[in-house]
């Protein structure tokens, strides 16, 4: 089974559903509430498992009841949590998530910055059964270590470049593939135009680079040419975790030996289905549904 090591953030999300996004410091009544696991690396690991891959997560948590909940949910999805390390006298990461009736979201996260940031406890050699490494930017020291392990082992080293992307560019140079969020790219380059910002980044790294633009699809550079993958047209239930599902699917496809261009198509379909399904991690699609959506759109385009 194709296996991906995910390194980064695991968080417990407290999700409140309301009609419209808050505009003032007032009281608002939620129409629904869920407590679900989140975090870019952790949710990407679930997406990988749902798509038929093997996922191992390396993350830092506190030694508290929230960590128990986080690990239990991830293991229930089949994620290997043997590299999730709990730190005594620290608090696990929490988020308040506001989702409106259009599926847009507002997130307020707490991360204990006193957690030990060193990556010395991570494996010093990439395990033989790991076919790709996916990292997020919430733990830069762990991310850099993971990317370097992947590079030395000759497997894809994938950076989920969402905010905050460290300004020194070290993570970009260590990666073989960099997938920016629109905000991550804009803030890193100081350029609000995705196309020109992508070209700027491409000139500073030998990694394959792209930027995900939500409902507007994905832009990427192929042999210096700007290319795009259109977003699939689906009814939006909520967008929470869609980017994480994209990165998990992208990493799995690369680990399986797909080209970056084909992996982008696969990831875009997975993210679209996540948006349509909603429902937290339970909405991460299975392999058959992703392949069916891709085939459906191919057939429609031929017709």
What descriptors fit this protein?
303 residues; alpha/beta; 26% strand; four-stranded mixed β-sheet; UDP-N-acetylmuramoyl-L-alanine:D-glutamate ligase
Brief synopsis:
With 303 residues, the chain is α/β, with parallel strands linked by helices.
* Low-pLDDT regions: none
Which band does the percent of strand residues land in?
A: 25-35%
- Topology as H/E string? EEEHEHEEEEHEHEHHEEEHHH
Mean pLDDT: 94
CATH architecture heading: 3-Layer(aba) Sandwich
What is the approximate shape? Answer: globular
How many distinct folded domains?
1
CATH superfamily: Ribokinase
What is the structural class? alpha/beta
Radius of gyration over C-alpha positions, nearest whole angstrom: 18 Å
The level 1 CATH classification is Alpha Beta
Question: Major β-sheet, in short?
Answer: 9 strands, mixed
N-to-C span? 36 Å
């Amino acid at each position: 089974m194709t296996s991906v090591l995910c390194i980064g953030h695991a968080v417990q999300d407290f999700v409140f559903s309301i009609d419209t996004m808050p505009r003032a410091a007032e009281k608002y009544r939620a129409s629904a509430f869920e407590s679900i696991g989140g975090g870019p690396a952790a949710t990407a690991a679930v997406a990988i498992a749902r798509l038929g891959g093997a996922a191992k997560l390396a993350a830092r948590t506190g030694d508290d009841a929230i960590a128990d909940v986080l690990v239990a949910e991830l293991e229930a999805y089949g994620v290997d949590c043997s590299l999730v390390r709990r730190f005594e006298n620290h608090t696990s990461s929490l988020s308040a998530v506001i989702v409106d009736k259009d599926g847009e979201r507002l997130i307020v996260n707490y991360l204990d910055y006193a957690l030990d940031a060193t990556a010395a406890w991570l494996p010093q050699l990439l395990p033989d059964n790991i076919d790709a490494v996916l990292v997020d930017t919430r733990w830069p020291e762990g991310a850099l270590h993971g990317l370097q392990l992947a590079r030395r082992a000759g497997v894809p080293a994938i950076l989920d470049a969402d905010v905050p992307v460290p300004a020194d560019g070290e993570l970009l140079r260590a990666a073989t593939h960099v997938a920016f969020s629109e905000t991550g790219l804009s803030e890193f380059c100081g350029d609000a135009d995705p196309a020109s910002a992508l070209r700027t980044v491409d000139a500073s790294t030998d990694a394959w680079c792209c930027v995900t633009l939500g409902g507007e699809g994905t832009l990427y550079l192929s042999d210096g040419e700007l290319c795009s993958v259109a977003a699939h047209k689906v009814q939006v239930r909520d967008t929470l975790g869609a980017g994480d599902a994209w990165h998990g699917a992208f990493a799995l496809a690369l680990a399986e030996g797909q080209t970056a261009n084909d992996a982008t198509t696969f990831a875009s379909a997975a993210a679209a289905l996540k948006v349509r399904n909603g429902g937290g991690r339970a909405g991460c699609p299975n392999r058959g549904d992703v392949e069916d959506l891709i085939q459906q759109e191919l057939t429609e385009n031929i017709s």
